[in-house]
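look at this stuff:

>
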Amino acid sequence: AQPGALGKSIASQVKDEWYVSFVGISSGFKSELAEAVSKQTGCNYFCVTKDDELEKVVVTDFDWNFFPAAFGVEVAAQSGDFDIVGVYGTPHDDAKEEVLQAPWNPLTHRFYPPEFREQARALLLCSRRLRLGLPMPALQRVLDFVSPAVRSIFDVDTAFP
């Protein structure tokens, strides 16, 4: 089969909500065919080279492997203190970071959302009442944690349970 023709055939089935799972058996299966399958929403592929792998894919994990649970899943993580080191899924899923705002400082305070400004105000008032006098770097770190400047977004075409 030609990858282009297979991809077109699968795409027409996806329109009718028929999804394809491709199981390649042996180490010599054509990966370009598997790529054509995995590019389609709701479709996936597996490569098995041993009997126990085949049983795991089509018997043990059948419910997990062959029935898509969600489409167009977007996961957003917003933190200034954590880095996302990897996203697992199909090679066509997308990961990106977007800068939401500049790091906090007194000059940029007015550009932050009202809820954040109220939280910053409460922190400053508590600091003064307790006579802590937080140094500016500590204050910036705390406020950047409350409203991180970077958000990581992961788009997953199809999620299987």
About this structure: The chain has six helices and five strands. The chain has a mean pLDDT of 77.
